[in-house]
Amino acid sequence: SAFDSWALSVSASDSWALLGFGFWILGFIFRFLGFVRFWVLVYGLLMDLRFQIIDFEWISISISS
């Protein structure tokens, strides 16, 4: 009947909406993880640079003394 086909189309559109929402959430999570990984990388590089500068200063101090 018409009602059955209407119910079927509604459930189908619901599942598509759910699927789309799931993909959106997945995309959001991946974007967030990429963002976090980027900042961890930047932070790691900055810390490396800082430690290298500290090492360099310490070496130059120990050489001059």
Helices and strands, with pairings:
Layout: H1 2-64
Q: How many strand elements? A: 0
The residue ranges in which pLDDT falls below 50 over 5 or more consecutive positions are none
- First-to-last CA distance: 95 Å
Number of helices: 1
**Structural class category:** mainly alpha
Percentage of residues assigned to helices: over 70%
Mean pLDDT: 83
How much β-strand is present in the residues?
A: under 5%
* Largest sheet data: none
SSE ordering: H
Large-scale geometry: rod-shaped
Whole-number radius of gyration?
28 Å
Structural features:
single chain; 65 residues; mainly alpha; 97% helix
Short characterization:
Keywords: Membrane, Transmembrane, Transmembrane helix. The protein is mostly helical and 65 residues long.
Account of the 3D structure:
Keywords: Membrane, Transmembrane, Transmembrane helix. The chain crosses the membrane at residues 16-46. By secondary structure, this protein is mainly alpha-helical. Helices cover 97% and strands 0% of the residues. It contains one helix and no strands. It has one helix at 2-64. The radius of gyration is 28 Å and the shape is rod-shaped.
